[in-house]
Write a structure and sequence with these properties.
single chain; mainly beta; 16-stranded antiparallel beta sheet; 2 helices
Length: 220
C-alpha cells in the first residue's frame, strides 16, 4: 500500500467523540439515612436540595429531552458539577467553572469512551478517546476549536500522527504494523503532494504528486 493510500484510508474513528458538548446532568455524594424511618418509595419528577438559606444546591430531575440528571450548585447558585444519562443510555460527567461554563467532560458516546477539556470560553481544546475495538486517539484543537493535531493508534498497534491547518490535514506520519514508516506532505486542498517512505527491505523512496494527487516523479 502506498503512502497516499495509507493516509487516505486512515479515518479518525474517534473524531466524533473528540469534540462533545457538555452534559446538562451531574454528580452527587450518597449520605447515610435512617432506614427505619425512610419511606419505601417516593415518586416525583424533580427533587430539589436547598441549604439553610433556602438556596438551591442540588437538583435531581428528568429534562424535557429525556435526560436523567443530577446537578450540583455552589453557594452562588452556579452549576459546578453534573451527572446525566440520555435516553439512549449514554452517560456523561461534567465539571464547570466559577462562571458555570464547562471545563471538563467524561462520557461514553456510541461505545466510545472520551474525555474532553475546554478553555475558559467553553471551547474544546483537547480530547482523548478509546473505541470499542481498542483504537485510541488524542486530539488537540486551536482557540477556535478546529482540530490541529491528532495521534491515533490502531487496534493492530500502528500509530498515525496528523498535523493540520484550520481547514485540512497538511502533514501525516505513520508506521505500518510490519514496521514501514512513512511521511506525507499535503496541499491546501488536503491532497498528497509529496511522500517519503521506507519499505520492508529498508529502501527509501521520495514520490512527488501533481495537483490531482497522481504520482509524477519518484526517487529512486
Amino acid at each position: 500500500m502506498t503512502i497516499k493510500e495509507r493516509f487516505g484510508l486512515v479515518t479518525l474513528t474517534l473524531a466524533a467523540a473528540f469534540v462533545g458538548g457538555s452534559v446538562s446532568g451531574h454528580i452527587f455524594a450518597a449520605r447515610a439515612v435512617d432506614a427505619a424511618n425512610a419511606p419505601r418509595m417516593i415518586t416525583a419528577q424533580k427533587f430539589m436540595l436547598v441549604d439553610s438559606h433556602g438556596k438551591t444546591r442540588g437538583e435531581f430531575n428528568v429534562t424535557s429531552k429525556g435526560v436523567a440528571q443530577i446537578a450540583v450548585f455552589d453557594g452562588t447558585g452556579t452549576l459546578r458539577a453534573g451527572l446525566g444519562v440520555g435516553t439512549d443510555g449514554a452517560p456523561a460527567l461534567g465539571i464547570y467553572g466559577h462562571d458555570g461554563k464547562p471545563r471538563a467532560e467524561v462520557g461514553l458516546t456510541n461505545s466510545v469512551a472520551r474525555i474532553v477539556l475546554f478553555d475558559a470560553n467553553a471551547t474544546a481544546q483537547a480530547s482523548l478517546g478509546v473505541a470499542p475495538d481498542g483504537q485510541s486517539g488524542l486530539g488537540l484543537m486551536d482557540k477556535a476549536g478546529n482540530p490541529r493535531a491528532s495521534i491515533i493508534v490502531q487496534p493492530d498497534g500502528s500509530p498515525t500522527l496528523r498535523l493540520a491547518d484550520a481547514q485540512h490535514g497538511r502533514i501525516g506520519m505513520d508506521l505500518t504494523p510490519d514496521g514501514r514508516p512513512g511521511l506525507a506532505l499535503l496541499g491546501a486542498d488536503g491532497k498528497t503532494r509529496a511522500s517519503l517512505t521506507v519499505d520492508g527491505d529498508g529502501v527509501g523512496a521520495l514520490t512527488l504528486f501533481d495537483a490531482a494527487g497522481n504520482p509524477i516523479n519518484s526517487v529512486p
